[in-house]
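Hi all, long-time lurker, first post. I run a small reading group and we've been trying to get comfortable going from sequence to structure in the token notation. Rather than ask abstract questions, I figured I'd post a concrete chain and ask someone more experienced to write out its structure so we can walk through it together at our next meeting. Sequence below, copied exactly:
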Amino acid sequence: MSDEPDPRSGLASLISSWRHIWSRAGLAQVDPVDHSDSPTDHWLADWQADVLLPDFQMRQYELCSQPHLPEEGAGHLRATLVRRHSPRHRRAVLYIHGWNEYFFQAHVAAVFDELGFDFFAIDLHRYGRSLQDGELPGYMTDVRDYFPELDAVVAEVRRDHDQVLLYGHSTGGLIAALYANDRPHKFIGVMLNSPWIDLQGSALFRALTPPLMRGLAMATPTMALPLSENDLYGRSLHRDYQGEWDYDLNLKRISSQPIRPGWTRAVVNAQDRVGSGLHIDAPVLVVTSSQSSAPKTWGPLVTSTDLAIDVERVAARAYRLGWHVTLVRLVGALHDVSLSSAQVRRRFFDEIRRWVAAYLA
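-- Answer (accepted) --
Happy to help. Here is the structure in token form:
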């Protein structure tokens, strides 16, 4: 093996440094939007039967301060709060789903109910129950776009609960981490299921992607990128294929929703904030698979590894979330650990029980 330095490593390091400087400068120049003359955000109705899950209830919140993009037509964004039942515990958990997702994991709600938590989940705007005709599924310009609706649902949850646990999966884990960081003293704990807090891929890919996406986002933020699709993860989950779960394939597609430069810029900006270090002031639990993989065809790795993110990079960055972080890596887990095989799910829920008993009692 040659002892010559790999020129790509030096290039990646140079671009990464440039990316960090550009990111900090760009974030510093972003001014908050003045919504003082906008209509007031408000709840549309009281609790009603959920449209997707039996025995659950839902309530929608209209974000009058956040109008549609020009290509989406007239109207405002909406968010949807889902709950398992009327309040019966003094503690609650609020779940934030990931990319190409919505809340359908009723079995997770049952586990938290057993632990003494009322369960709530939010379908963020442009996702799931909140998605309206003409909207760009999942699109955001900044992670902080979600903070107004999260503020509203946290206030709603806290009306009947003394303590709230924040729980996020994948991109929802990234959102949850930054939200908890920016809203100190709000949560008794933060639980992250495979949080997407760092990019996957080679060093060169990770260095090139952020500046490329930031450049594209300035010119064509909502353009659908021509990326190849891999449906293996979706096939491993849904019962119509090789999985065991039933959910709406229009709201959680087998492959993915279109990826757009503006959305990708928002993700890498948020990941850069995590990389710079957060100060979440509550105990944090991070749970991931023990292994990532990128198979091209069906095989054992599809049903026993994380196909979406690089768990090694997530594990390496987890300590930057706060001062009290517990990391658990489960052999055989999928990207959404709660949708793994029955044996892995049992271990996942056991880890949650131990963490809650140790730090949230």
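A couple of things your group might point at:
Residues 1-36 have pLDDT under 50 and may be disordered.
The domain at 42-199+274-359 is CATH 3.40.50.1820 (Rossmann fold).
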